[in-house]
Specification:
The protein is of the alpha+beta class. The protein has 3 domains: 31-82 and 117-241, no CATH class; 249-335, no CATH class; 369-474, Immunoglobulin-like (Sandwich), CATH 2.60.40. It has helices at 36-54, 87-108, 111-116, 118-134, 137-145, 150-175, 181-187, 204-224, 226-232, 234-241, 254-257, 282-285, 306-318, 330-335, 343-364, and strands spanning 59-60, 63-64, 66-69, 74-77, 80-82, 191-192, 198-199, 249-252, 325-328, 369-375, 383-385, 388-399, 405-413, 418-420, 425-427, 432-442, 450-459, 462-474. Helix 4 (118-134) packs antiparallel against helix 6 (150-175). Mean pLDDT is 88; it is low at 1-14. The structure holds iron/sulfur cluster (2 copies).
Length: 479
C-alpha cells in the first residue's frame, strides 16, 4: 500500500446510504493492506491452517491422532477414545466453547470472526490467490471490465486453478478426519483393472463428501465471502448482543476525524474547521465486508482491524497521530475511560473456568469400561431352586479402553448374592459384549421382596478399570 499517496486519492464525502438487507451490493474488490492487524491475522491463520492440514496425518498409539470413526461409533482424539456414551462430554465441550466465545466477545468484540473463524481464514487464502494472480484492487477492477484476452484467461484461469486446488485439499483433509487419510488419498489414485479400465478404490461415500466439502469451500471462500458473514452465520447475530459500551471494537473517532474532507498540502485544515479524516476511503477499500466504519459500529463489522491498518498508514503519510480508527470502546470515546473489569465479564469468566474444571474432571475420571444391567423381561420375575432364589439379567459390557482386557463380574447386596454360570470374558479393544447371567441368593437372606444389588465388572489385569451398576433383585412376597 506504500506505493500511492492517499492525498491524491481523496474522494467526495459519502452520503448516508440505506440498504435493503438483501440488495445486491456488487462485487467487493478489497485493497491489499499491510500492518499490525493484518500480521496478526496471518499469525493466527497460518497455525490454524497448518493444524487443520496436519492433524489427520499425525499418529498416536498407532492410530490417527484425530479420527471420527462413524461406522465404529468411536472418536479418537489424541490418546483418548470417546464413545456414544460420552455424548454428554461433547455437549459440554460445545457449551464451554459457546461461553468462551461470549467471554471473548464481551471483552474484545467479534475478534473470533475477524481473526480465527474458518470462513475468514479460508477467505484470506482465496484473496491471497486472487491478489497473486490478478493483482491489487485497481488491476482487478480493470481486468473485470476488459474483454476476454489471453492475459485475462490466463490470470482468471490460474486464480481458479489455485482456488480449486485449495478446495480439494480442504475437502480431502476434512474427510480425512472421518476416514484414515492415507487410504483416502490412495483411493483417489487411478489404477487399471484387468479389462484396461481406469478405476478408483475410494469409497463412493468418501468421494461424495470430499467433493461436497471442496465445492462448499470453493463457493464460500471464493464467491460468497462476506455474504456468509452477513446473511448466513448465526454467530454474527448473537455475538453483537454481547457487546456493551465497554467492549473493545473497531471505532472511528468522529470527534477527531470530522469534518472530514480533502485538504491541500500545508493547509491549516484545523483553522478551516476540518478534522483528521482526509476522506481517502482507504478504510472502506480494505474492508472485507464492504462497510464504512465512519458511519458507526455496524453489525457487519467482523473486527478484523484492516481499516485500522489502512488508516494508520494514511495518518503516517499525513504526519498525523495514528489511531483515528482504532480498537476502543464507546465509553472511552464518549467519557475517556473503559471499564475492563465489569460484572458481566466476571460472570462469564467464572462460568467458563468452572465448566472447564468440571469437564477436565469428567474426562479424567472416565472409566474405560461401562456396564449395563437389564432384568431379563422374557424370564419369570424370580425362580426358586432349592433354598436359592434366582433372577436372570442381561449384562452388557463395553470395553472402551484402547487395549483388550479380561473382565470378571461380581455381585453385592444385603445377603450372600452370587453369580452362576459365567467365566471371565476376554473383550477386544472397543468390543461390546452382552451375556445373560443368573444371580442367586439364599432365600433366608431376603428380608423384602424387592432388593437392591450392585453388579461390578473389573479387568483382571488392572483392577483400577472397573464399573458398577445398580439393579433390582425380586424375591417372593414376604407376607
Ligand atoms: S478514516 Fe482514515 S482511511 Fe478512512 S477515509 Fe478517513 S483518513 Fe482515510
Ligand atoms: S470495518 Fe474495519 S474492522 Fe470492521 S470489518 Fe471492515 S475492515 Fe474489518
Amino acid at each position: 500500500m506504500g506505493e500511492k499517496n492517499p492525498v491524491k486519492e481523496q474522494a467526495a464525502a459519502p452520503e448516508i446510504r440505506y440498504r435493503n438487507l438483501y440488495e445486491d451490493t456488487g462485487k467487493v474488490y478489497t485493497r491489499k493492506v499491510s500492518g499490525f492487524f493484518q500480521k496478526i491475522r496471518r499469525y493466527t491463520g497460518l497455525p490454524l491452517i497448518a493444524g487443520f492440514l496436519l492433524m489427520p496425518w499425525l499418529v498416536v498409539d498407532g492410530r490417527p491422532a484425530m479420527l471420527f470413526d462413524l461406522p465404529a461409533r468411536k472418536f479418537h482424539i489424541l490418546w483418548m477414545t470417546f464413545w456414544p456414551q460420552d455424548g454428554m462430554l461433547l455437549a459440554w465441550l460445545l457449551i464451554i466453547a459457546a461461553f468462551a466465545l461470549f467471554t471473548v466477545t464481551v471483552l474484545v468484540g467479534r475478534v473470533w470472526c475477524g481473526f480465527t473463524c474458518p470462513q475468514t481464514v479460508w477467505t484470506l487464502m482465496y484473496i491471497w490467490a486472487e491478489h497473486f494472480c490478478e493483482g491489487d484492487r485497481n488491476k482487478r477492477m480493470k481486468l473485470d471490465q476488459q474483454p476476454w484476452t489471453t492475459e485475462k484467461v490466463l490470470r482468471k484461469g490460474s486464480k481458479h486453478f489455485l482456488w480449486v486446488a485449495i478446495a480439494l485439499i480442504t475437502g480431502l483433509t476434512f474427510v480425512g478426519y472421518f476416514t484414515p487419510i492415507r487410504e483416502l488419498i490412495l483411493g483417489f489414485i487411478p489404477s487399471l483393472n484387468e479389462s484396461g479400465m481406469v478405476t478408483f478404490d475410494v469409497h463412493p461415500v468418501a468421494a461424495f463428501w470430499t467433493f461436497f466439502f471442496a465445492t462448499a469451500t470453493y463457493v464460500n471462500a471464493g464467491w460468497l465471502r462476506e455474504q456468509v458473514c452477513k446473511y448466513m452465520c448465526p454467530y454474527a447475530r448473537f455475538q453483537s448482543v454481547m457487546y456493551d459500551t465497554d467492549t473493545l471494537a473497531v471505532h472511528y473517532d468522529a470527534a477527531r476525524g470530522e469534518q472530514r474532507g480533502p485538504r491541500k498540502s500545508g493547509e491549516d485544515y484545523k483553522a478551516a474547521g476540518k478534522g483528521d479524516c482526509i476522506d481517502c476511503s482507504w478504510c472502506v477499500q480494505v474492508c472485507p465486508v464492504d462497510i464504512d466504519i465512519r458511519e458507526g459500529l455496524q453489525y457487519e463489522c467482523i473486527n478484523c482491524g484492516l481499516c485500522v491498518d489502512a488508516c494508520n498508514q494514511v495518518m503516517d503519510k499525513m504526519n498525523y497521530p495514528r489511531g483515528l480508527i482504532r480498537f476502543t470502546s464507546e465509553d472511552q470515546l464518549e467519557n475517556g475511560a473503559t471499564h475492563f473489569l465489569r460484572p458481566r465479564l466476571y460472570g462469564y469468566t467464572l462460568a467458563v473456568v468452572a465448566m472447564i474444571a468440571a469437564f477436565v474432571y469428567a474426562v479424567g475420571s472416565r472409566e474405560p469400561v461401562s456396564v449395563d444391567v437389564i432384568r431379563d423381561r422374557g424370564a419369570r420375575l424370580y425362580r426358586i431352586s432349592g433354598d436359592q432364589v434366582q433372577n436372570v439379567y442381561t449384562v452388557k459390557i463395553n470395553n472402551m479402553d484402547q487395549r483388550p482386557h479380561s473382565y470378571e463380574i461380581a455381585v453385592e447386596g444385603a445377603g450372600d448374592f452370587h453369580i452362576r454360570g459365567y467365566r471371565p470374558l476376554q473383550l477386544e479393544e472397543g468390543e461390546i459384549f452382552t451375556l445373560p447371567v443368573r444371580v442367586s441368593v439364599p432365600r433366608k437372606d431376603l428380608k423384602t421382596s424387592k432388593n437392591t444389588i450392585y453388579v461390578t465388572v473389573t479387568a483382571t489385569d488392572d483392577p483400577a478399570i472397573t464399573a458398577r451398576e445398580e439393579a433390582s433383585f425380586i424375591g417372593p412376597s414376604m407376607h
